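Customer escalation, tier 2.

The customer says the design service returned an amino acid string that "doesn't look like it belongs to this structure." They asked us to rerun it and document both sides in this ticket. The original structure tokens are below, unchanged.
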């Protein structure tokens, strides 16, 4: 077993290109900047996912390439949304424009969101099973579906998005480790730690926003 893991590490290191290194670095930078609500997180995400889209396409992984194409679109959406955008109330009342604030969802809304994710996971997992297109079809589908959905929550600055990432990254580590990608699995371990950091940072900012709103 140890010999097989060592062989996998050596094989991945041989194919670890400078472009992949750049994509990993920009991906980590994206998470760190997102945790600090720095809008430049989204250009970093855009370039990182663009590189991964090409890497996965050349590596004959079309679904992962398509997923990163979606991430590119979400990066553009996040960049636009994190600029100073007027709320409907501000636009209607001609009041000062305020940036998008961190906010929370209620339990009912999260239940519906998770239910939708589970439904899509079993739907895509069933298709992957039918066409024998994945080593671990349901885990593969679940990571893909919830990653796409959580990227949307991140762009909308929903506080709980970081908790979703912690859970998703845990399953992603299992997926990549069991399918023979130990280096990628290690990268997602790092993402998991950064998700905890992001959740703490956003929780503190959310509390500060709440105190400010209460004082006003």
């Amino acid at each position: 077993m140890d010999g097989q893991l060592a062989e996998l590490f050596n094989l991945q290191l041989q194919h670890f290109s400078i472009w992949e290194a750049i994509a990993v670095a920009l991906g980590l930078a994206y998470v760190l900047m997102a945790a600090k609500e720095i809008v430049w997180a989204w250009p970093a995400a855009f370039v990182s996912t663009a590189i991964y889209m090409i890497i996965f396409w050349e590596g004959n992984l079309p679904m992962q390439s398509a997923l990163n194409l979606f991430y590119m679109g979400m990066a553009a959406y996040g960049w636009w949304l994190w600029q100073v955008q007027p709320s409907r109330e501000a636009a209607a009342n001609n009041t000062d424009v305020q940036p998008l604030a961190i906010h929370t969802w209620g339990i009912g809304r999260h239940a519906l969101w998770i239910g939708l994710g589970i439904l899509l996971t079993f739907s895509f997992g069933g298709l992957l099973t039918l066409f024998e297109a994945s080593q671990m079809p349901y885990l593969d589908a679940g990571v893909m579906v919830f990653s796409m959905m959580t990227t949307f929550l991140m762009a909308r600055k929903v506080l709980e998005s970081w908790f979703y990432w912690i859970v998703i990254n845990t399953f992603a580590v299992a997926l990549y480790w069991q399918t023979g990608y130990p280096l990628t699995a290690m990268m997602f371990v790092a993402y998991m730690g950064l998700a905890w950091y992001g959740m703490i940072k956003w929780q503190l900012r959310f509390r500060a926003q709440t105190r400010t709103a209460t004082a006003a």
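Tier 2 assessment: The sequence is consistent with the input. The chain has one domain: 2-87+100-215. The two ends are 62 Å apart (CA to CA). Sent an explanation to the customer and offered a walkthrough call.
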